[in-house]
Amino acid sequence: MKKVVITLISLFLCVGVSAQGVAKSETADNEGYKFTVLKELPVTSVKNQSRAGTCWDYSGLAFLEAELLRMGKGTYDLSEMYTAYWDYMDRAMASIRSHGTVSFSQGGCFGDVLHCMETYGLVPEEQMRPGVMYRDSLSNHSELSAMTNPMVKAAASSGSLQSDSNYQLLCMKAIQAVHSVYLGVPPERFTYGGKSYTPQTFYASLGLKADDYIQVTAFLHKPLYSTFAVESPDNWRNDHSYNVTLDELLDITDYALQHGYPVGWDSDVSEPGFRQNSRNGFCVLPATEVSGSDVAGSDMAHWTGMSAKDIMDESANRPTPQRWVTPQERQLGWDNHETNDDHLMLIYGMAKDQIGNEYYMVKNSWGAYNGDYKGMFYASKAFFRYKTITILIHKDALSRDMKKKLNIK
């Protein structure tokens, strides 16, 4: 996924959200949002990716940590830097081999976490912590990228690369050395809980299997119930997702949560309903055209005839009717680049507001913001319907009928 721009991070430093559904405090002239939790799954603590464009890494490992809780394995804190180290190395090599066709950046997708887990294993956070190489406790990959981006670009554009006596590319050894300086050296063996592990044996001990997880999407330009690689620059591994209808995408998400399975969420966060409101604990997709017939006989008649700007402004203060996009509108948003592969998060529950709008409960990776919600927020199903790129779930989170449609056993 694309890296989260530093200015966006700054924008959300004061977000207030509640994992337990505590409503935003009301004022005399602000009714506020009141959320009722319908389903809530256990998750680990909120992390802070800080100045690193590795939301895919933080959200992917948050998903795995939630899976371990679901599986009864207990609470784990897995190292994001270990996964990022190996993914950066893989992407550098792919860029060099493709002569730069594969872009080299901090971004990534859920598939990167699964691939690195299966290939390189996992390690606890204590083995490779963020920021320790530069006297910090949070990630800052700005200088790292400033060093490695030109190196990868130069190697990718070279007509002839030098190698050592073992036929290993010197450029890759140099790129690896820089990553070791900024991220740390991946451990070959370590002790955890009184036992000795390699990264691979530690991964095996957790009972996780990369093949157990699938990604699902809903676009019109590919056949239903087949798989394809979503066309995102950060899907550089060309990982495939199952394609379903838009209604089925929401049904799959609901079914997973209702049956105790967490959901990884790859979404666009540039929409005004996210940027304007998520710092207050929610993101929405207001219906900026509301007719009398849509709300006749309901308390939502208040919005009939209001301008689009008035409704957007109102949505910052209290729930408003939501825009329920068609599959065609969603497809156009992707094709015309209004919807972008911006940010990955974790969905761990469902809720509703006081006028009946439904929401997903989301764990973010931008730290525990000030306020009641501590780094969590509520995303309306209307927003999810429009702006979701893919979701990540355990294949057993699918219903029997959906497994049959997708030919998954």
TL;DR of this structure?
With 409 residues, this protein is α+β, with helices and mostly antiparallel strands. The protein has 14 helices and 12 strands.
Structure description:
With 409 residues, this protein is of the alpha+beta class. The protein is 34% helix and 14% strand. It has helices at residues 6-11, 55-70, 80-97, 110-120, 142-157, 170-183, 199-206, 246-258, 272-275, 292-295, 308-315, 327-335, 381-387, 400-406; strands spanning 36-40, 190-192, 195-197, 213-217, 227-229, 240-243, 263-267, 282-283, 343-352, 358-363, 376-380, 388-394. Strands 1, 4, 5, 6, 7, 8, 9, 10, 11 and 12 form a ten-stranded mixed β-sheet that branches. A two-stranded antiparallel ribbon has the order 2-3. The longest helix has 18 residues, at 80-97. It is globular and about 75 Å long. 46% of the residues are buried. Mean pLDDT is 90; it is low at 2-29.
Descriptors for this entry?
alpha+beta; about 35% helix; disordered N terminus; 10-stranded mixed β-sheet; about 400 residues; two-stranded antiparallel ribbon
Strand and helix map with partners:
Layout: H1 6-11, E1 36-40, H2 55-70, H3 80-97, H4 110-120, H5 142-157, H6 170-183, E2 190-192, E3 195-197, H7 199-206, E4 213-217, E5 227-229, E6 240-243, H8 246-258, E7 263-267, H9 272-275, E8 282-283, H10 292-295, H11 308-315, H12 327-335, E9 343-352, E10 358-363, E11 376-380, H13 381-387, E12 388-394, H14 400-406
Parallel strand pairs: 4-6, 8-11
Antiparallel strand pairs: 1-9, 2-3, 4-12, 5-6, 7-9, 7-12, 9-10, 10-11
Helix pairs in contact: 2-4, 3-5, 3-6, 5-6
